[in-house]
Design brief:
Elements (H helix, E strand, L loop, with lengths): L2 E3 L5 E7 L4 E5 L21 E6 L21 H11 L4 E6 L2 H11 L4 E7 L12 H9 L7 H12 L21 H7 L2 H4 L2 H7 L7 H8 L6 E6 L7 H9 L4 E6 L6 H4 L1 H12 L11
Parallel strand pairs: 3-4, 3-5, 5-6, 6-7, 7-8
Antiparallel strand pairs: 1-2, 2-4
Length: about 290
C-alpha cells in the first residue's frame, strides 16, 4: 500500500480503489480508518479513489505528538498527500467529520481544490454542531420502523450522556436509512476501526475559528456539492444547507431515504449523483433539492 511522510515525520498510508481520475477521500468518525468507506457504493467504477488513513488510524502510524490529531493540524497531512500525488489541483470527497477537515483545507488552499463533495458533513468547523434535538427529530421520522419502540429510548439515553446506554447496536438503526444486514455488518467493526484517543482530540479547543473559516470559504471558487441524507440526524438537511451557503459556488442535494451512510442506503442514487457532480454535470440525476 502506498505511504508518504508527513511534515513531522509521521508515516501515512492511503489506499487506492478503482481507476480513472483521482478523487482524494477523507474519512469521518472522527478518526476512523478509511476501510469503512469501501468503494463508496461503486463510485470506484467512475474514479480512482485515494482513501487516506488519517494519522493514528488504519495503516497510518501513530504520531509522536497526540496533539497533532486536532482537526486543523491535519490540514498539513492533506497537503502533503496532494504533493505526494503530484496534483496541481485535486478533486476531493469528505464524509461526516472529515467534512470539517476538507473545509479547513479548502479555506487554506482554495487554489488546490478542483471540486469538493461534502457527504453528510456536520458543519462543526462553522460553529454549527448537530444537537441532540436534531438527532431526535430525525429519529422520530423512523417511528413506523419495527425496531423504533425499543431503539428510541436507548438513543435518548445515549444522547443524554447515560453511560449505561453505550450499546450502539441498540439504536444504530438511526444512522442508516435501512437497518438491515448490510448496515449491521458495516457498523460491527466500528470499535476496531476507530482511534478513541484521536477522536477526543479532533475537536479539541482551538481547532476551529468559524469566522476565519467563513472568510476562507468565501474565496473558494471551485464547485462544491453538499449532500445530506433525508433521515440523517447529524446533520439534518437544513443544517447541511448552511454548509452550502458558506460557499460561493455550491449545490445542495438531499438523498431520499438516506441516513448517515448514503452510499449504503441507495448506492445507485448516490453514485449517479456524485459522479454527475464530479464530471461537471451538476444535478443531472434526480435529487430532492
Amino acid at each position: 500500500m502506498p505511504t508518504f511522510t508527513a511534515a513531522d515525520g509521521t508515516a501515512l498510508t492511503y489506499h487506492i480503489r478503482g481507476e480513472g481520475d483521482p478523487l482524494v477521500v477523507l474519512p469521518g468518525g472522527p478518526m476512523r480508518a478509511s476501510s469503512y468507506l469501501g468503494d463508496l457504493g461503486g463510485l470506484a467504477a467512475h474514479r480512482r479513489l485515494i482513501l487516506l488513513d488519517l494519522r493514528g488510524t488504519g495503516d497510518s502510524a501513530v504520531p509522536a505528538d497526540p496533539a497533532t490529531y486536532r482537526c486543523d493540524r491535519l490540514v498539513d497531512d492533506v497537503e502533503a498527500l496532494r504533493v505526494q500525488l503530484g496534483l496541481e489541483r485535486m478533486d476531493m470527497l469528505a464524509h461526516s467529520a472529515g467534512g470539517s477537515l476538507a473545509m479547513l483545507y479548502a479555506g487554506r488552499y482554495p487554489e488546490r481544490v478542483a471540486r469538493l463533495a461534502l457527504i453528510t458533513a456536520t458543519p462543526w468547523v462553522l460553529g454549527r454542531p448537530a444537537t441532540a434535538e436534531h438527532r431526535l427529530a430525525a429519529a422520530r421520522l423512523r417511528k413506523d420502523e419495527p425496531w423504533f419502540a425499543q431503539a428510541y429510548p436507548a438513543f435518548e439515553a445515549w444522547l443524554a450522556g447515560d453511560g449505561a446506554a453505550d450499546d450502539l447496536m441498540a439504536f444504530a438503526g438511526f444512522f442508516y436509512g435501512r437497518w438491515d444486514d448490510t448496515a449491521r455488518a458495516h457498523i460491527a467493526p466500528l470499535d476496531e476501526q476507530s482511534n478513541e484517543e484521536a477522536e477526543g482530540v479532533y475537536f479539541a479547543e482551538g481547532a476551529f475559528d468559524p469566522a476565519a473559516t467563513r472568510e476562507g470559504l468565501a474565496r473558494v471558487t471551485a464547485p462544491v456539492l453538499v449532500l445530506a441524507g433525508e433521515v440523517d440526524g447529524g446533520p439534518r438537511p437544513e443544517l447541511a444547507r448552511e454548509t452550502a451557503d458558506a460557499f460561493p459556488n455550491a449545490e445542495f442535494a438531499v438523498q431520499p431515504g438516506a441516513g448517515h451512510y448514503p452510499w449504503l442506503d441507495d448506492p445507485e442514487w448516490f453514485v449517479r449523483r456524485v459522479a454527475a457532480f464530479l464530471d461537471g454535470r451538476g444535478a443531472a440525476s434526480p435529487s430532492a433539492e
